[in-house]
Predict the structure.
Amino acid sequence: MKKYYIILGALQSFTALGAIPAGLGYLLDTSGKGMGVTTEMLSESPLNSFLLPGLFLLIVNGFANALGAYLSFIRNKIAGHMGLILGILLTLWIIIQVAWITMSSFLQPLFLVIGLTNIFLSWRILKNKSMIIP
């Protein structure tokens, strides 16, 4: 059981370490030019700048995953629930991103696998604690 918490925390840390600088980059230049992209990527989406993606990256995929990692490493009683929510959000983030801007980076399938792995690990943590409905 301890290994699930450690792996979950490591994946959440990895996600946060990638998302925080990216989120800041998009917030500092919402045109995306500073990050090597343009708003033309968003033409198939309801967005016209990288403001909302930058906020989501920074707050949810960044800071929330950093908090989730901390909770996982200390094996807090809500770590499984938080991991499940963050895994679902990361998975949805990638699916929506690919639907709107197509597959544009190897990071998209990587983070899809990380999101799905977070869901699986969190489910195992919750199942082992009998805190999830079978």
Q: What stands out?
A: The CA atoms of residues 26 and 54 lie 5 Å apart. The chain has a mean pLDDT of 94.
